[in-house]
Amino acid sequence: MTKQWMPLTDPQWDQSAGAPVFNLKRKRKHDLRQILDAILWLLRTGCQWRNLPSEWPHWQAVYYYFDQWKHQQLLAQINAALNEEDRIRTGKEPLPSPGCADSQSVKLHPMIWKDRGLDANKRVNGRKRLFLVDTQGRVWVVLVHTANGADGPAATALIGDLLWRTGERLEKVFGDQAYNGVFAQALGERGIDFEKASRPESAQGFVPVAKRWVVERTIAWRNFFRRIVKDYEYTVASSVSWLYLANIQIMLQRIDHQYQTLFPNTF
């Protein structure tokens, strides 16, 4: 994984905007490629909107597009399309059959009180992120809620989105004991198996669990994006959008690496 920001290459832009998501035919004041570059730069550096450097379009213009794409679910659509492309590249079916669920509690900016809670177990005052990924760590759906919310009941809200993204191919979801309740029951009602995958009770410290450690790795990858190491967003919808953008960035890097391997003399 590339740990610093780099502008979008032509293959990356073609893959992200080439998907029938952006309307590139209409005349615009700002270049959408530059807007997306600016948003990904913010994701990497953690800069405030109002402190966006002058070489980028005005911060209000960049924020306008981010807000529009957030409400139109365009970022979620791009994320799903890039996930499918990356799975095909690795010789897999476009949609996953097994999935993995886990959560991460993160601190919330001290000036924000909306959707704030205390995770007493991890001693985190903020919000909780729930990830549903495939067995290679690609993020398919995300939910952000108060940190004091229980994982299992909260995860049931994601089942509809998960089925919409994966279709009828999803067969099983792995998770720990927190999901072995109402979430597992809700999956069963839709014909999806739930399998508890937890470390042995006698084990101490981190223990890789087969079929489920990948979601822990996915959560760890968020540390490469300063905008999301802590939650700075007033709304959970914005938090979700940044998490999708982080996965989009990772998928674009993989796609760019593939093109450089196939066509080394064009770069």
Tell me about this structure.
With 267 residues, this protein is of the alpha/beta class. The chain has a single domain (10-266), classed as Ribonuclease H-like superfamily/Ribonuclease H (Nucleotidyltransferase, domain 5, 2-Layer Sandwich), CATH 3.30.420. The protein is built from nine helices and six strands. Strands 1, 2, 3, 4, 5 and 6 form a six-stranded mixed beta sheet that branches. Strand 5 (172-175), helix 7 and strand 6 form a beta-alpha-beta unit. The longest helix has 27 residues, at 236-262.
Number of helices: 9
Query: CATH top level?
Result: Alpha Beta
**Uncertain parts:** 259-267
Annotation, overall tally of beta strands: 6
CATH architecture label: 2-Layer Sandwich
Short characterization:
Residues 96-243 form the Transposase IS4-like domain. This protein has 267 residues and is of the alpha/beta class.
